Amino acid sequence: MEISRDQSPANLLAAQGNGLTLILFFGSDSGHCTERAQTILAQQGLALSDSFRVSRLTGSQLQDDPSLLPTEASSLCFSGGRRLVWLTEVEERSGASAIQSYLKNPQGEGLIVVMAGELSSKSALRAAVKASPIALLVPCYPDGAREIEQLGKKLLAQDRITIDPDALKSLTELLGSDRMVTRSEIEKLALYAGQGGKLSQAEVLTLLGDSAAVSMNDAISAAAAGSFVKLDRAIQRVFAEGESAVAIIRSTMQYFLRLQNFVQLKDLGQSASAVVAAARPPVFWRDKDQMIDNVQFWSHKNIDRVMALLLRAEILTKSTAYPDQLVASQTLLQIAYIGRRSQSRS
Prior knowledge:
The chain is of the alpha/beta class. It has helices at about 10-15, 30-45, 60-65, 70-75, 95-105, 125-130, 145-155, 165-175, 180-195, 200-210, 210-225, 230-240, 245-265, 270-275, 290-295, 300-315, 325-345, and strands spanning about 20-25, 55-60, 85-90, 110-115, 135-140, 160-165, 200.
């Protein structure tokens, strides 16, 4: 079965009881996956620190020994209650086959929670979970402006904090790539404002404007613009703030997929400025002029070249034989070179 992003897996689990034995969370927003999974743990009265009831496995472990999954799912808990199998780092080539085999021949009454990250629409693992009557597929995609605004209002209202409309708009533009990061940043704003306080746009921009998400966006924008100097500074700042190479690569993919949609609309007759102005979620205000330029000079052919570079980089960053930060940096430099040539020919 598959649920929509607005449905609660906890409610469905409560209704089905032990008949639902596997829940797979997938999507580009890892924080959203974690948050939705935590609702399951809370409902089941579980904590990941409870070693008596929780078994931790990874996709690579299952790849080496598929029997681990039915074994752990069938194990009894010393303290009683239902066992939780917490399965992470699952990919199509790492652990998926063991899960598919388990769904064909389930064993035990344990609850298996799978954190799978991004899976394509053609994923065999997604198809197997969706088709199984004992499994649940839960998509976890990045929040749009509406979801971020609702979360912001909810969290700030808990401390009776008011926020200016322009400040709320800036908040929705600055956040959203990861649910846990979004929640943490809003809580930081609440701590700054204090009980019954008020937040202005200037305060929101000051408090959130130097976050790693903004630094990453600066690096990606510089690459797209073909600005080598800005890219060098931005990428150093991103790594200094502790961001991973894989996150940079994936965020760059999302940026160029969005740009590709904008270019397609421009090719259908809309002006670049009209395309960017109508974007939902909106393009961050300080990036609008640059995005308009990108829509004008980037072509589908060059965007396809960039996507091929990024797919290769994602594979390399997951290999221990390659320094992942170097791979990410060189890939963005290659993109900047393509961007510079595209701009000079427009």
